[in-house]
Amino acid sequence: MTTSKPLIVPVPLGARAYDILVGRNILGEGVEQIKKLGVRKVALVTDENVHSLHAERIIKTLADNGVDVAAPVVVPAGESSKSYAVLAKTCDDILATRVERGDLVIALGGGVVGDLAGFAAAIVRRGMRFVQMPTSLLAQVDSSVGGKTGINSSHGKNLVGAFHQPSLVIADTAILDTLPERELRAGYAEVIKYGLINSERFFFWCEENWQQIFAGGPERDEAVAHSCRAKAEVVVRDEFENGDRALLNLGHTFGHALERIVKYDNARLVHGEAVAIGLAQAFRFSARLGLCAGQDAGRVEAHLKSVGLPTRLQDVPGGAGSVDAILDAMTQDKKVKAGTLTFILAKGIGKSFIAHDLNKADVAAFLMDEWNS
Amino acid sequence: MTTSKPLIVPVPLGARAYDILVGRNILGEGVEQIKKLGVRKVALVTDENVHSLHAERIIKTLADNGVDVAAPVVVPAGESSKSYAVLAKTCDDILATRVERGDLVIALGGGVVGDLAGFAAAIVRRGMRFVQMPTSLLAQVDSSVGGKTGINSSHGKNLVGAFHQPSLVIADTAILDTLPERELRAGYAEVIKYGLINSERFFFWCEENWQQIFAGGPERDEAVAHSCRAKAEVVVRDEFENGDRALLNLGHTFGHALERIVKYDNARLVHGEAVAIGLAQAFRFSARLGLCAGQDAGRVEAHLKSVGLPTRLQDVPGGAGSVDAILDAMTQDKKVKAGTLTFILAKGIGKSFIAHDLNKADVAAFLMDEWNS
Ligand SMILES: NC(=O)c1ccc[n+]([C@@H]2O[C@H](COP(=O)([O-])OP(=O)(O)OC[C@H]3O[C@@H](n4cnc5c(N)ncnc54)[C@H](O)[C@@H]3O)[C@@H](O)[C@H]2O)c1
Ligand SMILES: NC(=O)c1ccc[n+]([C@@H]2O[C@H](COP(=O)([O-])OP(=O)(O)OC[C@H]3O[C@@H](n4cnc5c(N)ncnc54)[C@H](O)[C@@H]3O)[C@@H](O)[C@H]2O)c1
């Protein structure tokens, strides 16, 4: 097994503190850290794709190092696994491995597996420890960090879940080599989001280095580690999302509305693509409100385009619905507090802020312009 | 509305501290306290029986006092509602009321509704506040206090759930007037359990006052309040059940085994009846091991009998299975840590303790004697 030293990003959450290990082929080091958790037995949850590509090798490495892993729990790939039915089956399958309360659940997969298995870990025996082994770029830079877990309801995405921090995150960037190009691009939208939120410098660096990030050079490790650091900082300030953590929703209010409009049909739009459009829109809207320079909005859009990400309503295959439909989908978002519209807007690249009480008419006018542009 | 001043039992859990209100017809005071929580909207969950007996009046009282209550979420009565399917429906029904994250769920019912609705509140929108309005004696003295919520899996009872403390518990003892006699008796087993754990005095008091407790005199309020205080004390010492809280399982290791053996068929055995047998057994077993006086075991059994509760394996309608079956059911219990048997035993009435590493052969021999006695 080739193995190397990981970058370590600490998440200092007091009694719930943990480390994120980032690097190429760091499984060996990851297993050492898992052993330090004092684990008796491990239940590993993964999806069909990741199972056939990576599970065998990882389970063997764990077993070779004396960690007792039960037969893996394998769920169908894709968002539809974030359902009550798959959650119930996952909990039962974890229980069937006869893990006890001090034991461990490992979530090996993209954001879907992380959210689902993390939630199952939160509720099986009223809470088991779990380790995230994110295998998609999106999961490595976003969903595996911060402790939000959950599933979808017919009433909306992520409406049922738990705050449950992992005990460790192992982000092996080599595992992204098998990720489909489209998923890599989608995850990349979340990477540059961190630059857009509060680091102009990181955004500029991404503009220069994105090819190496995609190709799997050391820049990939740096980008993942920076993203995790950025997310961890926000999470430590506001673990339960009562304030600041909302900044991470930059691009997501527009984005979620579009996902809802295409009925979460991944063939049309995956999450990161919706976020890419949302990021471009958040900057164009900010420019329109006179908050940020039009140049900045243009620069954001140009970079998203150059990596092959969508940036406009017109880019949604099959159409993004009417302005009314988008507005309606937006106000159903759970981030809408007591009826008022909250957006994450920007005063420039790296200068995002939470804008409360936005005027619905302004949003409508903006969308109308977007639609006709 | 007749209304009176409640007894108040505080549960000082720091940021999760709350009060338990106990008394006859205290709904008025309860509503005042709910209003103090600063609630915008309430989703009320109840079961069919309690719904037809009490829900209308309670919803009206809330509404008359300016609390906005959505149409109640009604689940079937009985243990079978602690399932994945009813949980999913309950979450969706709560979401359909359009409550938001700062809003409130009220659990109006026995332990089943409390465990189910409390769990739903723990996971809808990753955690909503909730108020327990326990309507069975068991729920008032046990399940509504302490924050354990959950459902059953095919692998066992309460294996999926969350620690989620309520914001308030309203135990209106008048509501017990409609409770079937058998359920009242079953709940009473948990009441005297508190005496058996650490208060000889309370047990003696129960022996003298049980008729008034059943009849609904002020002794009922006292018994409920004492029980809540006793439970709260343990919970405050050990919220997440890493140690001391296990004392509350006095009578439950034997009891759970019997429930499992009758396949949770309430026609044969309800939880409190199983606990009653378990309490008598724990004392007889303690006496057999020379830990407590035979007299004490006799006294416990006599009191259980005098209120009409079962005390022996032979009392289980349809039989309690073989000694092997009981032992097997016992070692499946989730309280069995890494294979060793842990029991709550007693050095006398009010002198219970956690006994680790019990010899399985001793338990087997005891059960054999019980069986042949
Ligand atoms: N919890 C959070 O804080 C948070 C944050 C953002 C997003 N999310 C959630 O994350 C989910 C999206 O995550 P995602 O984009 O990773 O989706 P995903 O888990 O469905 O993965 C995308 C696809 O890539 C495949 N895949 C994953 N890793 C692979 C690999 N190494 N090689 C080959 N194929 C691989 C998967 O099987 C799947 O088909 C959404 O449900 C979203 O709600 C959660
Ligand atoms: N969370 C905890 O800490 C904890 C502790 C002990 C028990 N429990 C759980 O509690 C459950 C048992 O609770 P339970 O005994 O209250 O069962 P329950 O909720 O099923 O109630 C028993 C029966 O009484 C009916 N009922 C309730 N209140 C009534 C009233 N005022 N008038 C008329 N009928 C009424 C119910 O509809 C039901 O048919 C079990 O699932 C057990 O696991 C939980």
From TrEMBL, chains A, B:
It is an enzyme of class 4 (lyase). Its EC number is 4.2.3.4. Zn(2+) binds at residues 190, 252, 271. NAD(+) binds at residues 111-115, 135-136, 148, 157. SUPFAM superfamilies: Dehydroquinate synthase-like (SSF56796). The keyword Metal-binding applies. GO terms for molecular function: 3-dehydroquinate synthase activity. Pfam families: DHQ_synthase (PF01761), DHQS_C (PF24621). Its main location: cytoplasm. Residues 73-185 form the 3-dehydroquinate synthase N-terminal domain. Binds 1 divalent metal cation per subunit. Can use either Co(2+) or Zn(2+). Residues 187-336 form the 3-dehydroquinate synthase C-terminal domain. The keyword Nucleotidyltransferase does not apply. PANTHER family: 3-DEHYDROQUINATE SYNTHASE, 3-DEHYDROQUINATE SYNTHASE, CHLOROPLASTIC. Belongs to the sugar phosphate cyclases superfamily. Dehydroquinate synthase family. Catalyzes the conversion of 3-deoxy-D-arabino-heptulosonate 7-phosphate (DAHP) to dehydroquinate (DHQ). This is 3-dehydroquinate synthase. The lineage of its organism: Bacteria, Pseudomonadati, Pseudomonadota, Alphaproteobacteria, Hyphomicrobiales.
